[in-house]
Batch of 2 targets.
Target 1
Amino acid sequence: MNFFAELKRRNVYKVAVAYAVVAWLTIQAASIFLPAFNAPPWVMQIVILILVVGFPIALAFSWAFEITPEGIVRESEVQTDKSITHHTGRKLVAITAVLAVIATGLFVFQFIRVRSTSPSAATVTNKSIAVLPFENLSEEKQNEYFADGVQDEILTDLAKIADLKVISRTSVMQYRSGVVRNLREIGQQLGVAHLLEGSVQRVANRVRVNAQLIDAKTDAHLWAQTYDRDLADVFAIQSEIAKAIADQLQARLSPNEKAAIEKPPTTNLAAFDLYSRAKTLLLSIGFSTIDEKNLREAIELLDQAVALDPAFFEAYCQLIIAHGKFYSLNYDHSVGRLASAEAALQAVTRLRPDAGETHLARAQYLYYGHRDYSGALAELEQARRSLTNDPRVFELTGYILRRRGQSDEAVRNLERSVELDPRNYFIMQQLALSYQLLRRYQEEAAMYDRVLTIVPKDVPTRVQRALVDFYWKADTKPLHDAIDSILAEDPSAIPAAADTWFLCALAERDPTAAKRALAALNHTAAFGEGGVYLSASFGEGLLARVTKDEGSARDAFNKARLEQDKILQAQPDSGPALCVLGLIDAAMGGKESALVEGRHAIELLPVEKDSVTGSLMIQLFAIIAAWTGEKDLAVHQLELGVRAPAAGIVVTYGGLKLLPFWDPLRGDPRFEKIVASLAPKTGAKP
């Protein structure tokens, strides 16, 4: 009893409790902050090991030493009547209580964060699986695409089984091989009960594929198999793995599903390699100035693939997507580009006229190529019957409803798509964009924050997140800091954000930074939004105008006009391209032609036809009117632009307050009233 009483007197119990609270607090903090710095898993393991080793040391220290006003001395050297262990104990209790409150707060924060980014455990079905990227064990680097293709085909085969829930490739791409995987955490993040891992080794005309099925809750290996065969048998291997997994998960497999799984995507391995590379490029499309380059390269690869195998159904489906995006994003809004998409659609229809993928492909063609929203929605309804839980169906439905001005319904469909594809950060980015168009800035910021938990180093997303404060609060500091951080970390990554850097420099009236941003565009890319692209030459003219260098401005705008004329020759009915010409003519003093071009752009693409880009046509026409001295018309158009279904960046509080586009209207009471109406309301949710 004397021993335990002495333990109490020397505060050993209180030190033990305090140490436990400090350790808990340290672990909670590390679990939050270490991922933000991309720390490998072993760092957390070392932290825990240090805390475990430190526990007995702390107890031994509290037994052997005492803290006195003169410093730390051995307990045996302190006279009993002068000991202050009682006072030290009270301080320990107070400190422990404070630390416990902090630790509890961090625990609650971590719990809420995990709940917000991971599907509920209650929703996880036993017949759910994610196929993680396979490791490339081949010596040749280019075979990495081959390994990606093998993984993707197994995933595609499993997705054909209606009785299974299969996470799409986009959501699993981030868990690439070569990175230490926490399988239980991945299972929670993806909301699945099972994971499939594997490796591919290709040597000459042989291929070895290893696959293993894992219980995501326990890390237990449920099934494993190694296939060592001729390279020509790789598609048979993929089908066998898919059927074996279906059997392990006790999934019902209909005769049609079995036949679909056994049908190889192509018999030409060279075509399969080209297709795999192109599909990876298309999955990388996001908010970036390099999207045009990636789309162009993907189309070239797919053209080569179908030339090698004219019956390659999946390659034609990807061609429809690629040509459609190229056309709709105004990289090439020409009849020839649309004809290429139509040719791919004809091939798809010829090969599998009744497939769900064919209906989805036709919906994509009607949406991207003709803005035939009713027809596209009808095709999606057909596709939904066989692609019951395909996130692409809800994703495209969301895009169509957004263009039709049915923004709230669009948001609901995109949210559903994210539920089905929980780590697809491109759809999350699009959902964030929908929040922006509705001026729901808090939800937009939260969605970008969620994306950054998945891809913390993604440059376009980091910039888009910082942009929220710019157009919501007219605060350029977060955007400025983000650009500076990217420049410091990896200057080679800045072209992906050069357009936004230029916007920030204009808002801050910093010509030096603006010139650097234009240089980063490398005179080959463009900046803008909503399918309206302004060339680097236009940017040079705008910057020269801001700095009162009229000679340079005139030369730059002349060059921009020549470039735009060529675009319009290929795309004579493009509203966005004509609107850009109107901006250039307005900048050059061609008042009448600029106003005619601006009005005609609105006629070519009215809000009723496209609520997003149509809204932008109205908003940019307000700039044309302002630049030509038509202030009354400019204010009227701006009022219409503010009430338009979609909020463009130029017609936000930050855009109106800071960007030089609106300088001709500054000081006009009507303009200032519009700016004030968009200012964030204190204490109110946007």
Target 2
Amino acid sequence: MTREEILKQLGREAKPWDVVVVGGGATGLGAAVEAACRGYRTLLIERFDFAKGTSSRSTKLVHGGVRYLQQLNLALVLDALRERGHMLRNAPHLAHDLSFVVPAYSYGALPYYGLGLKIYEELSGRLSLGRSERLSREETLERLPGINANGLRGGVLYHDGQFDDARYAIALLRTLQDAGGVGINYVEATGLIQRNGKTVGVRAREREEGADFEFSGKVVVNATGVQAEELVALDGRPSGSLLTVSQGTHFVLPRTFLPGDTALMVPKTADGRVLFAIPWHGATLVGTTDEPVDRVTVEPRSLRAEREFLREHIARYLDHAPTTAEILSAWSGLRPLVGKKGVSTARLPRNHTILVSPSGLVTVTGGKWTTYRRMGQDTIDCAAQVGALPRRISTTLAMKLHGWTLDAPLDGKGAGGEWERVYGSDLPKLHELSTQEPELETLLHPRLPFRRSEVVWAARHEMARTVEDVLARRTRALFLDARAAIEAAPDVARLLAAELHRSGGWMQKNLQDFMELARGYVVVD
């Protein structure tokens, strides 16, 4: 069903939904999939694009969290390791095992890291991804070509998971649709419908044409992440009483900075965080920082202090600081943390919290990508009680996500083949577009693995509405190489305008909006 058909259906819909979810990031999509798979009539609305915010800006890890083990938060680690295992089993086209090495620059660090990572491995139990082991200096250098060898004593190898966050979110959207639920982007919640002191629905506005809607629901779930307090305020709770927000910034560098297939993990940086350098879609992803912020913005920008911090640590562990030209993209995300103001955000736990207001509004916040499914399960358990819905057990633990079976082998196009794995069983249908229109086989840019066919696919099947949707989240061009994405944007705008039947004026305005946004991903100092 196209987005236009969904809007028509919503305009005619009079029957109350069982569950209305506000927020189309990992948390909201996880909750909506959970609800729909239990047979509840489920609607999800997102005021921007799916995974526009925090959920497309993670470190791309599916992990238990080594630093939470250091904090003795065993409950979170155990839960996350369990969920990690099921994410890799249920979405093998999007999540996979990745080897990590912790370098040791003192002999005492080797047994310390070795013991901690052995415990981490044992906690994963039957869902373990592989054994940890101590490495010699030579083995460490072989695993991590490009690492600073000065003073290196050895390292410890362990296993965790890696995924593509925005593409995982799109798979959740398609899974929601497969389960009979409805999800739609660019529909903003403008108010709550309340009767006799109870929340019984959401008022909303479609942002493209300006149409107003009222969605009645037996229960409303607020899963808006760092914007959660906005909806809570509409329910009468004072703003600023719920969340502490921190910012994390990442650099994307050429593969030459870490040319192997093993990731680097630094267990403790100056601000108390774990730092990673990870191979990702043919590049090297480095991050993250942890800076408290007072203001929530849709497009957070890296701070000078964060950029200096990353440069310093890259030089310390990867031999030299990147030049401005070598930073292919720099991007930031905001984390919704439930904790006391004034406490270091690096020390705040990533546990999720579910709150039910006197009106019955269910708010879920906190958490981390790896535990999105468990957050959804807990949220819908709570929502079902609030909305007096029929009691039904969760079925998502072993549920395969949309596209999970790869029916056709990759086509051997180098980086393009590796990237195309994210489409899973949809890949043959994507290739059919190029068969029908050979022009669509062309790469969007010589430095990017993405093809014109993916623009058309994104518009037809994944609700992409803007150049940004295509270049930031349906493909990862903006996150991988901002300059190349800027150069590819006019071609994307032309393809998208034709597919969506938009005017030349729309095309120029959309292109201009993307150019302005994308320049913020290019480091100039």
